[in-house]
Amino acid sequence: MHDDETPDAYLNRAQEYVDALAAIGEPVKDKDLVMLDVSGLREEYNGLKTIITSCQSPTAFIELHALLSDHDYMLGKTRAPAPSITSSFAANYALGSPSMPEARQAQLTNFTTQLSAFGF
After folding, report:
1. Residue 61 CB: number of other CB atoms within 10 A?
2. Are residue 21 and residue 64 in the same domain, yes or no?
3. What is the pLDDT of residue 65?
4. How far apart are the first and last CA of the chain?
5. What's the pLDDT at 73?
6. Contact 111, 93 (CB under 8 A)
7. What Rg value do the Cα atoms of the chain yield, rounded?
8. Assuming Cys at both sites, which of 22, 63, 99, 120 could form a disulfide with 85, CB separation 3.0 to 4.6 Å?
9. In this structure, how many other beta carbons lie within 10 angstroms of the beta carbon of residue 64?
């Protein structure tokens, strides 16, 4: 799988090779195709590789599309930037709230500044 290649494009390319081999009388077994495809996945798919290769029942090639799509979806969820502790703190403690006493508001502002300085 190329660095910029989507899972669908990767699997479509693999299917094209299999079709070409079948056309010249050299069919590829489904389980062999799955193992070749899985072995060519990028490092970010290592967890999925482990699951597929350790299953007792073989994964069908047609199932790989869904598995890779689900995996990419979950990778996208984990890559989304998490809110910082400082912004969560500020949201939960209503910095700048008109009902908060000025002295308390100043303390909270100072505290969030310190958190930001430490990278939170």
Report:
1. 20
2. yes
3. 86
4. 36
5. 83
6. no
7. 25
8. 120
9. 21
What domain range includes position 111?
A: 85-117
Q: Is residue 1 part of a domain?
A: no
Q: Enter the pTM of the model.
A: 0.58
CB 37 within 8 A of CB 55: no
Q: Name every residue whose Cβ is closer than 8 Å to that of residue 9 and which is 6 or more positions away in sequence.
A: none
Same-domain pairing of 51 and 17: yes
pLDDT along the chain (120 residues), means of 10: 85 92 92 90 89 86 88 71 54 54 68 61
Q: Which of 63, 61, 68, 57 is nearest to 29 (CA)?
A: 61
Would 2 be classed as within a structural domain? Answer: no
Can you tell me the distance from the alpha carbon of 103 to that of 113, in angstroms, rounded to the nearest whole number?
15
Residue 14 neighbours by CB distance under 10 Å: 19
10 Å Cβ neighbour count for 4?
6
Sequence letter at residue 51: I
